[in-house]
## 1
Amino acid sequence: KTLNDSSGSLNIFKKEETSDGALINSSGKESAVTITVAGASGDLAKKKIFPALFALYYEGCLPKHFTIYGYARSKMTNEQLRTMISQTLTCRIDQSGNCGDKIEKFLQQCFYHSGQYNSEEDFSQLDKDLKEHEGGGLANRLFYLSVPPDVFIDVARCASLRASSLKGWTRVIVEKPFGRDSESSAELTRGLKNYLTEEQIYRIDHYLGKELVENLSVLRFSNLVFEPLWSRQYIRNVQLIFSEDFGTEGRGGYFDSYGIIRDIMQNHLLQILALFAMEPPISLDAEDIRNEKVKVLRSMRPLHIEDVVVGQYKSHVRGGVKYPGYTDDKTVPSNSITPTFAAAALFIDNARWDGVPFLMKAGKALHNRRAEIRVQFRHVPGHLFKRSFGMDLDQATNELVIRVQPDEAIYLKINNKVPGLGMRLDRSNLNLLYADRYSREIPDAYERLLLDAIEGERRLFIRSDELDAAWSLFTPLLKELEARKVVPELYPYGSRGPVGAHYLAAKYNVRWG
Ligand code: NDP
Ligand code: BG6
C-alpha cells in the first residue's frame, strides 16, 4: 500500500489496517487516541517523549482528537505538568521559533494524573479521566512505560485492566533495558505477556528510529550497485562504532548495573548489524523484516571473551580542566569494574557472511561523538595499480561510511586520479551529506517511533524472539566477564579508548576507521 504523506513524498509503510484493532484509518488522523506517559516526571519524558509528541502535533501527524496524560507518583497539577513540558520543549520545532500558538494548543491537550505504578485503584481513576476525553467513542490508548524496569510489569498490568472492555486498541511502549541477560529478559517477557499480547507490546530501541538506520534497507535493496557487493565476496569487514564525548554524568546509578555492552552493544549496535546483514525480506511488512533479522541473529556465534576488550574511563586534565573518571561519580562504587567501553569481534556463520569480522566498538567519554557503520571492501585483484603511483592499493581499499550521527551522511571512499599531467592516485569521497542535499530537518527518532506506535506499525520495534536471540549472543560473555571479574583497561576521559581495541582489530587484520 502506498500513500502520499503531507510532504508529498511516498510513504510506503503507512497502513490502512492494524492487526490489533483496525481502528485507525489510513492516515490515523481522524480517530481519537490517548497517550499516557508513565514516569512523566522523569528525564526521558522531559527530554524526548513530550518534545517528540509536540513535534508530531506541530507537523500535523497526531490524530485530530488526541489527549496526553502524564502519570507518575510525584504530585503535580495539570498546570505544573504544562509548565514542565513547555520548559523542556527543546525539540527541533521549538528551535524554529514562531510556534507559540501551537505550543499553547498542544499544552491544552496535556493532563496529569498522580498515582502509584502498582495501584489498580489509581489506574481506574485514570481510566475514568481517559473515558471523559474519549467521550464514549473509540478508546485507542497508547501507554509509554518511561519508568525504571522493576515497575514495567506493574504498569503493564494496571494499564491493561480495562483494555478488553474497550472499543479500540491498547498498546504499550516498553523502554529498555529489557532485562540484563537471557533469564531476566525471558522473565520480563513472560510477565508482560500475562497482561498483554505480543501485538500490544512495542519494545523500543530508539536507534531503529534514526534516519540513517531506517535508510539501510533502502540503500541496500533499491540500489543495484550495493546489493551484489553485500557479502563476504567483496566485503572485508564491517565496523559498527558508537562513541560519546561525555561520560555517564547523571545516569551513573543505572549505568553501573548494566555497563556499555548491555547499554549499547546488545541492543543499538546489534539491531543495526541485523538490519545491515539480513537477507532481502519478502516484503516490507513488519513480520517479514523481523523474521529476517531473527535469522541473522540466530546465525551468529555467541561472543568469546578472547574477542572482547573492555575499558573504563579515568579522570584526565586537559587545558587546565579536570574531567572526572567514571568512579568519581558519587552514584558509582569507587571499586566498580563496570565497562564504559567495549570492543568486540562478531561473526555470522551463514553463506553470505562466513569469515567476515563485524567489529563493534562502543564507548563513553571518548574524543568525539559519533555513530557510524563502516564497510571496508576487499582489495582490487590484479596488479594494475598495486604499489605504484604513490599509493598502496592493498591499504587504500574502498570504504563505505554510513554516518548515523552527527552530520548524517553516506560517503564512499574511492581511489581517483589526481587531475593533471602524469599519473598520481588519491583517495576521494563520493559524498552524500544530508544537510547539503535535503532541506528538511531530520525528525528525532522518538518522533518516528511514537508515530509508528500510534499507527500500529511494528516494523521498527523489537519482537520477543529477536530479543531472545540477542540475549543468547551476549549472555554467556556477560556472565564470564562478571564471574572472572575482568578488570577493564583504563583510558583517559576524552581519549580514543583503550589500546586493547587496536590489538583486537589487528588480530583480524582490521584498522578502525
Ligand atoms: P527516571 O529515573 O527519571 O525515572 C522516571 C520516573 O520513574 C521518575 O521521574 C520517577 O517518577 C519514577 N521512578 C524513579 N525511580 C523509581 C523507582 N525506584 N520506583 C518507581 N518509580 C520510580 O528514568 P528516565 O526517565 O531516565 O528513564 C525512563 C526509562 O527509560 C528507564 O527504563 C530507562 O532505562 C529508559 N531510558 C532512558 C533514557 C534516558 O536518556 N533517560 C535513554 C534510554 C532508555 P515518580 O517518582 O514521580 O513516580
Ligand atoms: C541510550 C543509552 O539508549 O542511548 C545512553 O542508554 C546513550 O547511554 C543513548 O547515551 C545515546 O542515544 P543518542 O540518540 O543520543 O545517540
## 2
Amino acid sequence: MPRIPADELLVAGVWRRGRGAPFRAVDPADGSVLTEVHAATAEDVDEAARAAAEAAADPAWRDLLPHRRARLLHRIADLVERDAEELAALQTADTGKALAETRALAASAAGTFRYTAAALETMEDALTPSRGPYVTLSVHEPIGVVGAINPWNSPIASDAQKTAPALAGGNAVLLKPAEWTSLVSLAFGRLVHQALTEAELPTALFSVLPGSGRVVGDAIVKHPLVGRIGFTGGTATGRTIARHAADKLIPASLELGGKSPTIVREDADLEQALAGVLFGIFSSSGQSCIAGSRLFVHRSRYEEFLGALVERVRKLRVGPGTDPDTQVAPLVHHKHRDTVAAYVDLARSEGGRVLCGGAAPGGAAHADGAYYLPTVIDGLPNSARTCQEEIFGPVLVALPYEDEDDLVAQANASDYGLACGIWTRDARAAWRIARRIEAGTVWINTYKQFSISTPFGGMKDSGLGTEKGRDLIRAYQRQKSVYWGT
Ligand code: NAD
C-alpha cells in the first residue's frame, strides 16, 4: 500500500486542512476508502490567490534569472524521479490504472519538467529590426497568478504539463485536481513545495486546492487576481470556464473531450491494425480523451476485421492495476462504471449489437471493484448517440465505410476533433486522409504516441489552444514591446 498523504492541502505555502467538508478518496479496485480529504473552499482559494500574487511579485522570484528558474524545474524533476515508484503506486490506488501506466505517467511528468527547463534556458527576448529612428525590444513578462484545473484520468502528467510552463514563465500556480483523484496531486505538491523551500523561494508560489469544481474551480476561474486558466476536462465545463474567462478578458486554454475515429483501410497490415485499435481504445480502460472510440473499417474487410478483433477483445485480462498481467484495469469510480454501463444499454436500445463485453465481469475477484468488460458494438448509424457522445470507457463502436469520401464524411460528422488513427500501407492515401480529417492529432500506423516537443490540442468541441512544445512557456507570459528613441 503506498503512503497516503495526510489530510492536508497546500494553501498559500502552508499545509493544513481545507475549510470545506471532507470527501473520500476510494480505491476503485475494491471500493476501499483510502483516506478522507477536507476540501478547499472559495475562502481558501482567495487566501491562496492573494498569497500567490504577493509571491509572484516578490523580487526573489520576479527577478530570478531564467537559468535559476530552470534549476528549480530540474529539482522538481529530480524529486518526481526519486519518488516515481511511490507516486505510481498512489496513482494506481487512487485511479485504478495499471501500474505500468502510472509509472509511465510519473516518468512523463519528470520529463515535462526537464524539457521545459531546457527550453527555458534557450529562450531569449529579442531586439527586433528597427523601421524608424528607434530601437525596439520585445520582452516577455509573467502573467502573475495562473489557475490549473485538471481532470481525473492522468493527474500527475496533467499537473506537470500545466505547472512546468507556468513556473518557467515566472508565475505562481493554483492547482485544482479532480474530486476523484486528489491524492497524487497532493503528493506532487509536496515535491514542488520541497523544491521551492530548498531554493529559498516563496512557497506560496504553488497551492494545491482539491474540492468540487463548482466551488473551488469556479472560485479560481473568477478570482480577480487569476490572469490565465489552463483547463483540461469535459467540453461542457470548458464552455463555462471560457465564458467566465471572457468576462474577465483573460486567456484560457481548453483541452476537452473527444470521440476519435480510428480508420482501417482495405490495404492495412491487419496484425498491426488489430494491435493498434485494441490499444487505442482499451488502454487506460478507454478513459482517455484521445481514445480511438469510433472504428471505421473498409466494407471489404469489415467482417474479417471485426471477427478477429472480437476474438482478441474476449481474451483481454481484466483485473486490478497492481497485477502486472492486467490489460484492462477498473474504471476510476463506481459511479463512472454505471455511466459507461448506461451508455451500453442506450446502444442496445438504439438497435446496436453488443459483440462482446456489455457487462461488468462476474466472479468474486471483481465483485467490489469498478470493473467493466471491454465492449465492441456494431450495427448503429453514425448519428446514434453512442457513436457521437464521449463515453470515456472501454466501449468501441464499429462502422463500415464505402470509399474515401464516405469515410471522411463519416469521420468528420462529429462535434469533436481531437485525434484520429489511420491504418494503411498506402502512404499517399494516409497523407490525403490525414489532411482531410478534422482533428488536432493524426497518427498513421501508430496510436497514442506522444512527444513532449509536439504541440497537442483539439479542434471543434475538443478545445482551444495547445499544450506541450517549447512555445507553451510563452503562453504563460505577456508580451511587451519597448521602443527606445535614438
Ligand atoms: P470535468 O469537466 O467534469 O472536470 C474537470 C475539472 O474541472 C475537475 O477538476 C472539476 O472539478 C473541474 N470543474 C468542474 N466544473 C467546474 C466549473 N464550473 N468551474 C471550474 N472548474 C470546474 O471532466 P472530468 O470528468 O474530470 O474529466 C473527463 C473529461 O476530460 C473528458 O471529457 C476527457 O475527454 C477530458 N480530457 C481531455 C484531455 C485533453 O487533453 N483534451 C485530456 C484528459 C481528459
## 3
Amino acid sequence: MKDSYDLVVIGGGPGGYEAAIRAGQLGMSVACIEKRVYKGEPALGGTCLNVGCIPSKALLDSSHRYEATKHDLAEHGISTGDVAIDIEQMIARKEGIVKQLTGGIAALLKGNGVDWLQGWGTLVDGKGNDKKVKFTALADDSETTITAKNVILAAGSVPIDIPVAKTDGDRIVDSTGALDFTAVPKRLGVIGAGVIGLELGSVWRRLGAEVVVYEALPSFLAAADKDIAKEAGKMLKKQGLDIRVDTKVTNAEVKGDQVIVTSEAKGESSEESFDKLIVCVGRRAYSEKLLGEDSGIQLTERGLIDVNDQCKTNLDGVYAIGDLVRGPMLAHKAMEEGMMAVERIHGDKAQVNYDTIINVIYTHPEIAWVGLTEQEAEAAGYEVKTGSFNLAANGRALAQSEAQGSIKVVADAKTDRLLGMHAISAGAGDIVHQGMIAMEFVSSIEDLQLMTFAHPTISEAVHEAALSADGRAIHA
Ligand code: FAD
Ligand code: NAI
C-alpha cells in the first residue's frame, strides 16, 4: 500500500474492478479497496461474481440440463435411466466457477499493477486535489488514511428488506441464501416476480419444487414490452411457476420447519406454508461506511449518489458508478460506467449510451430487450410501427426443439429508424445484441430487411420481424 495514489476505487465489483484495471492500463497508480469476504476468504468480483450473475447462471444451467435430460430427450429417441440430481455437486460446481473467476480478477489486478486493499474504504474528504480515503484493514481493523487525486465510488447494492418477511438466513432468505440451498424445497415461496424471482424460482422449480411467486403489482414484468411480458407470463405459468400478480404478502412467519405466508388478493386474505421463502423485491444502493460526515458528496432524494451522465459527482475528481447510482442495476452497465469514469479522469471523451443498455432475464427461453418498448415509444410521441415473428415458424428453432417465443421490433414509422428490439426465445440475450448494434448505428427497419441472415438460425426471426413491420414477412 502506498500513501497516495492517482486513483482509489472503493468497491471491487464489476464496476470497480474493471475501472481499476483500465486505470492500470492507462498508467495510473491505483488501489482498489474491497471488504468482501466470501466463504471465509477475501474476494473480488462483487455481487455479480460471488452471489449474483455468475452463480445464478451456473445453477440455471445445471437445472436446465437436469430438466431437459429428464423430460425432453424422449422425442429425440434418446432414452436414459433414472435421472437424479446431486445438489451438493451442483453447488460445488457453482462454487468452483465463482472461485475460478474471482481468483482470475485478483490476478488481473496484480497484472495491471493495481493494489488490492482488503478492507473497508471511506471517503473522508473528497474536496480539493488530495482527497482523503480511510482504509480499515480486514485483517486487524487498523486504520490508515491514504490520499488520492481521484476517487471512484463503486460500493454496489444489497437486497431490500421488508418488515413483513424478515430474512433469517435459513427458512426466509434473500437471493444469496437461495443460491445455497442444500436440498430442493418441496414448496418454495418467492416474494417478487422480478428478475431474481423468475431466475431463481425457475432453478428450484426445474429441480422439482412447487413454486408460488407473489407479485404486489397488478401487471407482470412491467418494464418489458407488453406483448413479450404477456407471452412470458403464459410460458412461465405453463412451466409450473405459479405467479400471482396483485397479491400482497402481509406476513411471513417461521413455525417449526415451515414458513407460513399470509397474503392478500382482491381483499381476501389466505395462508400457505412453504419449506423456504425467497425475498427478492429489489435492491438498494449500499453506502454504509462509504462516506465520512465531511465527504462533501451529494446524495439524491432516494439515497443514491448524485451523478451526471458521465458519472461525475458534485466534487471534482470523484465519480460514482454501478448500482450506487441512477439507472438499471446491471453488471454490464456498471462495467461501462467504470471505464467511462477512468477514461474521463484520463482526459478522454468516453460516454455510455444509456439508450442501448440490454436487459436479459435468463429463464428458458430467455427474455431480453434493448431500447424502447412499443408503449414507451408511443408515450414518447413517436408514430410507431412494429413487426414481430413467431419462433414456431423458424426452422432452426423447430430443429432444436425450441420453437417457442417471438422477436419484435419497434420503429419510428416516420423515419423507419429502429427504436427497440424485444425477444423471448432461445438465446434471446444474444439475439438482442443485434438490435443494440443496429441502434448504435442508427439503422432503419429497411437496413435489417436488406441484410442476408444465415439459414437456419434463430437470428432469421430478426430479419422476418423487420420484414413483418412492413407486412412482408415470408414465413408468417
Ligand atoms: P457490486 O457488484 O455490488 O460490488 C460492489 C462491491 O463493493 C461489493 O463487493 C462490496 O463488498 C464492496 N463494498 C461496498 N462498500 C464498500 C466499502 N465501503 N469499502 C470497500 N468495499 C466496499 N446483473 C447483470 O447484468 N446480469 C445478471 O445476470 C445479473 N444477475 C444477478 C443475479 C443476482 C442473484 C443478483 C443479486 C444480481 C444480479 N445482477 C445481474 C446484478 C449485478 O450483480 C449488479 O448490477 C452488479 O454486481 C453491480 O456492480 P457494482 O460494481 O456496481 O456493485
Ligand atoms: P426487481 O426490481 O427485478 O423485481 C422486484 C419485484 O418485486 C418487482 O416486480 C416488484 O413489483 C416486486 N415487489 C416489490 N415489493 C414487493 C412486495 N412487498 N411484495 C411483492 N412483490 C413486491 O428486483 P429483484 O428481482 O430483487 O432483482 C434486483 C435487481 O438485481 C434487478 O432489478 C436487476 O437489476 C438485478 N438482477 C439482474 C439480473 C439479470 O440481469 N438477469 C438477474 C438478477 C438480478
